[in-house]
Amino acid sequence: MSNKAYKGTDFERLISKKLSLWFCEDKRDDLFWRTSQSGGRATQRLKSGVSTINSCGDIAALSEEGFELTKHILIELKRGYSQAINPLDLIDKKGCSSLILNWYLKAKMEAQNNLCKYVWLIFKRNRGEIMLMVEYHFMQDLLNVLDDVHKELPYLYIRLDQKGFYLFVLESFFAFFPYKIFITFLRSLN
User: pLDDT, tens digit, for every residue of 3-22?
Assistant: First the structure.
């Protein structure tokens, strides 16, 4: 396995643990784990017209509690690519030449094929913070349910044609939207 593959695998484990601890208020670290073949199994089955529950994206739920998140949100992870991951490419690069936008759009298509309403792109550049990228409509839906609680939350907002994206430091997002608050949003989607 290449060094990049190890880096990606380690990152998937780290994010699985962080998501689990956030989602259960630090009680358990095993609610989420890497999907089979980083979503490859779901992708291959979809080519045959067969959907695969809880297997799209890079993170799957291992428990009923965790499934509340993954049935609505496809979680895609990217690690490394320090020179290539630049959120400003969303503005600078014309068309779909931004690597980060291409990742997001690919994940969005996978989410739609698997009936997930939203995409979280979680990425980390070398020596950088772990970042969360979401679409405008996700934040609008979240804030409609939770009232406008994000005024103090540091974020970067980028509007590109008809699409808008929010970028957060993952830990800041988790701090501003703890499980007890976020679960209200998820339950409103049912």
Answer: 554 456 899 999 999 999 99
Q: What is the chain written as a DSSP string?
A: --HHHHHHHHHHHHHHHHHHHHHTTTS-S-SEEEPGGGGHHHHHHHHTT---TT-SSSEEESSHHHHHHHTTEEEEEEE--TTT--TTHHHHS-TT--HHHHHHHHHHHHHHHTT--EEEEEEE-TTS-EEEEEEHHHHHHHHHHH-STTTTS--EEEEETTEEEEEEEHHHHHHHS-HHHHHHHHHHT-
pLDDT digits (tens, 9 = 90+) for 97-110: 678 888 999 999 98
Q: The pTM is what? A: 0.86
Domain layout of the chain by residue ranges: 3-188
**Residue 74: C-alpha distances to residues 8, 70, 147, 150, 153 (Å):** 17, 6, 24, 22, 23
Instruction: Tell which residue, 118, 35, 36, 104, has the closest CA to residue 74.
Output: 118
